[in-house]
Amino acid sequence: MELAARFREVDTTAICDADKTTRVMHSAIKLRSAQPRIFGPAYTVRCRDDFLGVLQAIETAAPGDVIVVDGGARELALAGEMFARGALTRGLGGIVIDAGYRDIGFVSTCQLPIYSRFLTPMAGTTVKLGELQVPVTCGGVVVNPGDMVLADEEGLIVVDPGRVSDLLDAALAVKEAERKLTEHLAAGGTLSDGTNLAVHVEALKRGEPSKLSFS
């Protein structure tokens, strides 16, 4: 997939630098598995203290989909080893749960990207019908069905699918500018002469709009 390949050339920090309105999930949603990178459309679930909806989502989502669970930030596990194995079998793109996950002995070695707010041995029930493919809140941000979920070692972000391509282009430009500044610093240059720092500060002192940028 072209977009996924382009994401491998950048990172979430560059995307956030390119767009300060990017939805960033709370850092309490932490990586639990061996693979941090996610790039795929959200398949959303809303449930409370019951993981039947998560199971339904894993079994109905399309390959590459990312299961995003609004579990109300409650400290009960809504998935574990078997769900991770099932998601791997179905070729899903990851699991993100704003609640608990368990079975870390397996999950910590799993190549499926898995994120959760808590680790806990206590699981929820399986007697309540969850809501599938509805707008949810996960990690403090709204996630709509089909929104693109991107993650790496820095964290999780959510992007409108129609903006992904342009944002990746902008992020690539950020990375290229950073590369040039890195070379400048490695050659003995300073941050001051590698950016417009002096001009930027003087403009702000005059009350003029300005933006810090690489020279």
From TrEMBL:
Which is a Pfam family this sequence falls into? RraA-like
Q: Does the keyword Magnesium apply?
A: yes
Q: Can you tell me which residues bind Mg(2+)?
A: 103
The protein's Enzyme Commission number? 4.1.1.112, 4.1.3.17
Cofactor (UniProt): a divalent metal cation; Mg(2+)
Q: Which SUPFAM superfamilies does the annotation name?
A: RraA-like (SSF89562)
Instruction: Identify the enzyme class.
Output: lyase
Q: Does the keyword Metal-binding apply?
A: yes
Q: Which keywords has UniProt assigned to this entry?
A: Magnesium, Metal-binding
| Single GO MF descriptor | 4-hydroxy-4-methyl-2-oxoglutarate aldolase activity
The record lists the catalysed reaction(s) as:
oxaloacetate + H(+) = pyruvate + CO2; 4-hydroxy-4-methyl-2-oxoglutarate = 2 pyruvate
Report the superkingdom from the record.
Bacteria
Q: Which residues bind substrate?
A: 102
Subunit info? Homotrimer.
Q: Which family does it belong to?
A: Belongs to the class II aldolase/RraA-like family.
Function, as annotated: Catalyzes the aldol cleavage of 4-hydroxy-4-methyl-2-oxoglutarate (HMG) into 2 molecules of pyruvate. Also contains a secondary oxaloacetate (OAA) decarboxylase activity due to the common pyruvate enolate transition state formed following C-C bond cleavage in the retro-aldol and decarboxylation reactions.
What name does this protein carry? Answer: Putative 4-hydroxy-4-methyl-2-oxoglutarate aldolase
